[in-house]
Amino acid sequence: MGYEAGALRLATAGVILAAGASLSACGGAAKAAGTPTASAPASSESPVGGYEGWWNATPATGSSAGLPQETVAVNTRTNRVVDAFSRKINDAGRPTKITDVPYTVVHDPSWPADSVVIIDVVTNKMIENFRVDLYGNPLR
User: DSSP assignment of the chain, as one string?
Assistant: First the structure.
């Protein structure tokens, strides 16, 4: 029993480590509990490559059940959409353009100032927010 229990613990640890590596490779899922990132320095309008976080990550299991299917990122300084994400488009092998996800911004006074808010387009609810500098780069 002692050997089998030890082997099971080692196998479980290996699965956990492999899952962590898969999350790190999926472009943002590892940041799920941390600060969202811009994948490159941002311009005055939007980040090059967009924002990465739990809302647009692909879990190691490959299942996106329970995750938003389309989101937009709205800069609360300008009230403009600065990034968009569509699982359907990304699953087809191309990046999402802002124009791919139609969304009309209606400012909500509850949105934090000087931030980017991530909106689930289906529910029209803010699902994430983070402070950004004047260029849209997330602040830590």
Answer: -HHHHHHHHHHHHHHHHHHHHHHHHTSSGGGTTS--EESS-B-SSSBTT-EESGGG---TT---TTS-SEEEEEETTTTEEEEEEEHHHHHTTSPPPGGGS-------TTSPTTEEEEEETTTTEEEEEEEB-TTSPBP-
130 token code pair: 């983070």
Query: What's the confidence (pLDDT) of residue 34?
Result: 54
| Cross-strand partners of 51 | 38
Structure-model confidence comparison of residues 138 and 31, the more confident one:
138
Q: Most distant CA pair in the chain: distance in Å?
A: 63
